[in-house]
Specification:
Oligomer: single chain
Number of domains: 3
Largest sheet: 7 strands, mixed
CATH class of the largest domain: Mainly Beta
Shape: globular
Number of strands: 33
Structural class: mainly beta
Helix content: under 10%
Number of helices: 4
Strand content: 35-45%
CATH topology of the largest domain: Immunoglobulin-like
């Protein structure tokens, strides 16, 4: 009898413990997306676009911090396809990043299931195709990570939440654009600007209430200026970081960048322009939307509010006002400022100079004299399985070489827990946008001219933002600090040839298993 009682108690304890384990696991969200072609008249001309579940832009992905996402993607296109999750940190799980360095593309009439977690993140992000020129045809959408209810936020809960995907747009078919780039031609000037896939959208709110606007530049190549007629914009989050809350009349938003603002409807009841227009272009393209007061008694009127007349210097000064809110938390209870990145000594420095070069009579874009080409096997798989000949860590120098440009699969080696100082030197007369796949960094400093070691004296080593992207104005250097953990990270400019891969030597126990092609 005594043995049966003891055994019964053991079963009860195990059952209770199992229930606790189940309840402690973060929620799982399941999605099935089908990618197809469709025809839409975006700028008044019917053209082929990429749809996800028959939607353009694609479905919004709204998740909560630490949610697990299981997303089955079915490719019904006639070309291989991948989606990448712009800004999501693939912690110990770079196999789900959705770029050619980590994933084999999904063949036509096939499917692949992405499995990743929005671990310890909040903020406004987006997803987009990373293969060929698919991004020029659509396939992009919003990815918003909302804070857990137990985590306070440094502002009152807004009365509503709007997502705006802004970006340049081209009438030319994406396959023709790909052929043109492959032939050595530059990307053409865009034909227009869109807000949520349209030239005009309406957002409705109640007078006296405050609304959140999540804005992402999902375009190919053009920086945009965003503004709302007669209203101040309070910036509260940039790239997943809560910021010092300043008020702005205009915001420059570069390719790949996402920002979150709060807008209070404190004006007389009427309709007001929402404007996104191209920056740093001789011809200014504009898309307008409408902020509609629910008790409005007048249609939108008056001239469209103009963008700032100042160019690069003004934009750089605005960027310097984006500072970490050190006392605020982000996705966790501890304040953002509890991690003192400026007190860690960098272990490596890379100086990366971009260039537009002629190789075999064709225009290609290069970094330190190397124009990137994709290997036959995704780099992460080649690294994991020690496949020889796929890449070399000696393919690119750590500083500008001055040599004639060549093509190679450029890979830079790092070690676990390295703090890497990376300097981007833009010597071209164009804006450059760099994206760090699967991770982020602190933008420690930027300015005009050439970088030198003395530039470190002006670094912000206290409250710089963590970001997964960086926009570089012409003739600008920008320095960031990157704490190296993931096995594979790719920085890429969204034009053929200008990319670098970084491979981190990582113990196998710290990395999840690869997904087979």
């Amino acid at each position: 009898m005594g043995k049966s009682v003891i055994l019964h108690l053991v079963f009860v304890v195990l059952a209770v413990f199992s229930v606790c384990l189940v309840n402690a696991e973060d929620p799982y969200l399941f999605f099935t997306w089908t990618v197809t072609y469709g025809t839409r008249s975006i700028l008044g001309v019917p053209q082929q676009v990429i749809l996800i579940n028959d939607q353009f832009p694609g479905p919004g992905l709204d998740v909560v911090t630490n949610n697990n996402i299981i997303l089955n993607l079915i490719n019904k296109l006639d070309q291989p396809f991948l989606l990448t999750w712009n800004g999501v940190k693939q912690r110990k799980n770079s196999w789900q990043d959705g770029v050619l360095g980590t994933n084999c593309p999904i063949p036509p009439n096939s499917n692949y299931t992405y499995k990743f977690q929005a671990k310890d993140q909040i903020g406004s992000y987006n997803y987009f195709p990373s293969t060929l020129m698919h991004r020029a045809a659509g396939g992009f959408g919003a990815l918003n990570i909302i804070h857990r209810s137990v985590i306070p936020i440094p502002y009152a809960n807004p009365d509503g939440d709007f997502t705006l995907l802004v970006g340049d747009w081209f009438k030319t078919n994406h396959k023709i654009m790909q052929q043109s780039l492959d032939a050595g031609n530059p990307l053409p000037f865009p034909d227009g600007v869109l807000i949520n896939g349209q030239t005009q959208s309406t957002f409705t709110g109640d007078q006296g209430k405050t609304y959140m606007f999540r804005i992402s530049n999902v375009g190919l190549s053009t920086s945009l200026n965003f503004r709302i007629q007669g209203h101040k914009m309070k910036l509260v989050e940039v790239g997943g970081s809560h910021v010092i809350q300043n008020l702005y009349d205009y915001l420059d938003i570069h390719v790949g960048q996402s920002v979150t603002i709060l807008v209070t409807l404190d004006q007389p009841p009427k309709d007001y322009y929402i404007v996104a227009s191209t920056r740093f272009t001789e011809t200014v393209l504009t898309a307008t939307g409408v902020l509609h007061y629910s008790n409005s008694n007048a249609l939108v009127s008056g001239p469209i509010p103009a963008a700032p007349v100042n160019q690069f210097d003004w934009s750089m000064e605005q960027a310097r006002t984006y500072r970490w809110n050190l006392t605020s938390n982000a996705a966790r209870h501890n304040p953002q400022g509890s991690f003192h990145y400026g007190q860690i000594t960098p272990t490596k420095t890379f100086v990366l100079a971009n260039s537009a070069s002629s190789i075999n009579g064709k225009l290609r874009y290069a970094v330190n004299g190397v124009s990137y080409i994709n290997p036959d096997t995704p780099l992460n798989l080649a690294d994991h399985f020690n496949i020889p000949g796929d890449f070399s860590t000696n393919s690119i120098s750590a500083v500008p070489s001055g040599r004639a440009a060549t093509v190679a699969t450029s890979v830079m080696p790092t070690s676990l827990h390295d703090l890497i100082e990376v300097v981007f030197q833009n010597n071209e007369n164009t804006i450059q946008a760099w994206h760090l796949d699967g991770y982020d960094f602190w933008v420690a400093g930027f300015g005009s001219g050439q970088w030198s070691p003395d530039s470190r004296k002006s670094y912000n080593l206290v409250d710089a933002l963590t970001r997964h992207y960086s926009g570089l104005s012409k003739f600008l250097d920008r320095s960031f600090r990157l704490l190296g953990q993931p096995r594979y990270v790719e920085c890429e400019v969204y034009i053929v040839g200008q990319a670098i891969s970084r491979t981190t030597i990582l113990p196998e126990s710290l990395e999840s298993s690869p997904q087979p092609c």
